[in-house]
Amino acid sequence: MFYLGGFLGIITLALWIFAIVDVITTDEGSCRNLPKFGWLILVLLFPLVGSIVWFVAGRPQTSGRVRRGAYERETSRFPEYDRPGRFAAGSPDDDEEFLRRCRERAEEQRRKGREGDGV
């Protein structure tokens, strides 16, 4: 009976460590039912029960996700170009600041190129 208790203790410890790492590495917005900090406290204070509850009720659901290729990224809820409150010019000609920075960068590159040819 001693070996069975030791084995279950090792399984519980492994589950607990895996749950802690999983809570820490999960994105704040992906946690279900509690904030990330709440899940971390629950798993730390109640190792076996907290870990099981995390996997059942707190971990982000992965069903329906498509496996991505090596160079594909997951898009966030608000992609950069679609973020609320962000100004986006309709065409590049409408964004004078952008065009000014492009001209300055081009001039700087031309100047460096001329200096490099003369050396």
UniProtKB/TrEMBL annotation:
Residues 14-59 form the Cardiolipin synthase N-terminal domain. The chain crosses the membrane at residues 6-25, 37-57. It is found in: Cell membrane. This is PLDc_N domain-containing protein. The keyword Transmembrane helix applies. The keyword Ribonucleoprotein does not apply. It comes from Actinokineospora xionganensis. It is a multi-pass membrane protein. Its main location: membrane. Keywords: Cell membrane, Membrane, Transmembrane, Transmembrane helix. It comes from the Bacteria.
